[in-house]
């Protein structure tokens, strides 16, 4: 096997070329459904003007890459990620895949599992929509009350594409019991539950389910930093560490972003709360630098690189 690399808008990068990585953010996202007029359309210069300074700001704080979590169905635009990335000289990690219902375009709804698998494989190996940007990972989702038959079809295709490439699957899934159902589907397809990220784990109130997901080998992700009081985020991190989940924990903001449904793209929320507030509070409470490096450097690289 070759060297493990993180595929970004600025090429494939080694671990020693990277430091802190934010594993769940958005540069461009459109939460309108794909059938809406103007969906995912924006002026390139406007996107760069709004979002490049946000990347430059975290670059100055020592962040070295950001994972774009806008997938198919919610306005993924790898071409815009690429232009913003080049303007800021800052790597962005882009996914393949598709979101949950009703954010599923007709072509995905009508595609077979084999066709969906082929599409994801192509984007993971050859690049996305002529941009030259190779997808690093697969982003999908499941309904809050359970995975639908269509979402399960997308997941089965994703599991096969992931197994073939080593790519990780990340899913916006609010309920821990639904995450466990997803892991069962992945295992049934011959996939590796350890190559899965339970996105928005903090939204599941039962910490026992956080532990159950981690026990299957998956990453858990606390990605609402900046949306809640800083002390609340620190408490969650400390609890996870106390229960031995350090090596499977990812931390991020789920912030940004240019929204084409808003005038001028809206007002972006900075990606800096982890660096400026959460990590200093963890240090003040006695968390050592080796663990902080594990959480913010090593875990994201280990999750998204392949």
Quickly list its features:
306 residues, alpha/beta, six-stranded parallel sheet, three-stranded parallel sheet, 11 strands, globular
Set down the secondary structure blueprint:
Blueprint: E1 6-8, E2 11-13, E3 20-25, H1 44-59, E4 63-68, H2 78-88, E5 92-93, E6 95-96, H3 106-110, H4 113-125, E7 137-141, H5 149-165, E8 169-172, H6 176-188, E9 196-199, H7 207-215, E10 219-222, H8 230-242, E11 249-251, H9 273-284, H10 289-304
Parallel strand pairs: 3-4, 4-5, 6-7, 7-8, 8-9, 9-10, 10-11
Antiparallel strand pairs: 1-2
Helix pairs in contact: 1-2, 4-5, 5-6, 6-7, 8-9
Q: How would you describe this protein?
A:
By secondary structure, this protein is an alpha/beta fold. It has helices at 44-59, 78-88, 106-110, 113-125, 149-165, 176-188, 207-215, 230-242, 273-284, 289-304, and strands at 6-8, 11-13, 20-25, 63-68, 92-93, 95-96, 137-141, 169-172, 196-199, 219-222, 249-251. It has ten helices and eleven strands. The strands form three sheets. A six-stranded parallel sheet has the order 6-7-8-9-10-11. Helix 6 (176-188) runs parallel beside helix 7 and helix 8 (230-242) packs across helix 9 (273-284). The N and C termini lie close together (10 Å). The mean pLDDT is 97.
């Amino acid at each position: 096997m070759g060297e493990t690399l993180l595929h970004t808008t600025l090429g494939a990068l080694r671990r020693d070329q990277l430091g802190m990585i934010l594993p769940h953010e958005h540069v461009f996202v459109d939460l309108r459904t794909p059938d809406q007029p103007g969906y995912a359309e924006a002026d390139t210069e406007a996107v760069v003007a709004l979002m490049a300074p946000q990347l430059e700001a975290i670059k100055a704080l020592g962040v070295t890459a950001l994972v774009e979590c806008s997938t198919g169905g919610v306005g993924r635009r790898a071409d815009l990620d690429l232009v913003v990335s080049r303007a800021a000289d800052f790597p962005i990690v882009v996914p393949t895949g598709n979101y949950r219902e009703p954010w599923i375009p007709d072509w995905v709804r009508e595609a077979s599992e084999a066709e969906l698998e082929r599409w994801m494989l192509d984007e993971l190996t050859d690049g996305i929509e002529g941009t030259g940007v190779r997808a690093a990972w697969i982003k999908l989702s499941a309904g809050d009350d359970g995975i639908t038959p269509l979402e399960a079809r997308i997941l089965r295709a994703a599991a096969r594409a992931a197994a073939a490439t080593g790519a990780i699957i990340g899913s916006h899934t609010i309920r821990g019991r639904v995450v466990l159902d997803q892991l069962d589907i992945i295992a049934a397809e011959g996939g590796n539950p350890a190559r899965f990220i339970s996105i928005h784990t903090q939204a599941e109130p039962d910490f026992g389910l956080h532990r159950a997901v981690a026990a299957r080998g998956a990453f858990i992700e606390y990605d609402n930093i900046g949306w809640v009081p800083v002390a609340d985020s620190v408490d969650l991190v400390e609890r996870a560490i106390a229960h031995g989940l350090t090596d499977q924990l990812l931390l991020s903001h789920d912030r940004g972003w240019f929204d084409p449904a808003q005038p001028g793209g809206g007002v972006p929320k900075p990606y800096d709360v982890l660096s400026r507030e959460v990590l200093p509070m963890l240090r003040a409470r006695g968390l050592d630098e080796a663990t902080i490096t594990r959480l913010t450097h090593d875990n994201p690289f280990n999750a998204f690189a392949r």
